[in-house]
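Reviewers of the previous submission asked for a worked example of the structure-prediction workflow described in the proposal, so we include one complete record here. The input consisted solely of the amino acid sequence. No template or homolog information was supplied to the procedure at any stage.
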Amino acid sequence: MPDPANRPLDLGQLRAVLAVRETGTVTRAAEDLGLSQPAVSRLIAALETELGFDIFERSRRRLVLTDRGREFLDEAQSAMRSMARLSVMAGELRRGSHGLLRVGAIAPLALGLVAPAIAAYRRGAPSVTVEVDLLPRANQIEELRAGRIDIALAAMPFSGAGLRVEPILEADAVCVLPASHRLARRRVINLSDLAEERFVVTPPASILRQRLDDAFRQSNIPQRMVSVVENMSLVAALVSAGAGVAVTHAMPAAAMPSNVIARAFRPRISFSYAIVTQAGDVRSRAVSDFCRALRAVAHDVRRGVSRDADARAAPRRGRAGRS
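From that input alone, the workflow returned the following structure tokens.
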């Protein structure tokens, strides 16, 4: 008879104990795994029975790693990463030369970073298909964890174990308004200038909306909302149609309707944007190459912003020199 001690370990049990270590509680691990709390507890207990030692100590409803448990899970994490690498490799071999890369992004980054990155990436990988989904930030992380997208692109911060977060770009939110608007000639628009305006806004859960709401509260200015929409392209379309004005993530000028302009907004609402992928050394070559293309585009965007800032400052310096 085969020795029970030499039986392969159950991957579901390993995922359960690693999820508990990463999240800190059985409840959170169950949520991440899509299982019930009792099911996760049973998986842990079954693995401990099979191993012959405790992975966790139970102390006042808390699970604390034992020394043996810590050593075992360090090795288990390495093994699971190896399994993930094998899975990625198998997928690439299965697809042959016709690979598939799935990217999730908020609309401004899809237009400003992903589109030019695809053009650059395709020159070196013409047979790889790139799928782009316009997704809110929270949905991107959900899809990334589930393995339904390979790369996420959105505003920071990101929290949670198992994510690799690489900041690539910083930008300020802008005020978007019709070119015929009474404030269109101003270079900078203050919140107080918009006190009587109707706003097209994003949903309450979005970071942009939360920061804009904070600005209204701190300024004691009532916010007059006319529409709540998720997609930034739809925000621009509503502004174009005359529904109201908006404060949005910066978007490329070419992606804006012809009768809509963007102006600097104060108080400044700044964002750091990041590439987010699965943690661990499990990224395919396609993912790594596309991230490299995104970094190159972000570098060009930063240089372009710097040049624009210098051009705006030059006339002021000239006037100062003549005084």
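The two ends are 96 Å apart (CA to CA). We consider this example representative of the routine output the project will generate in years two and three.
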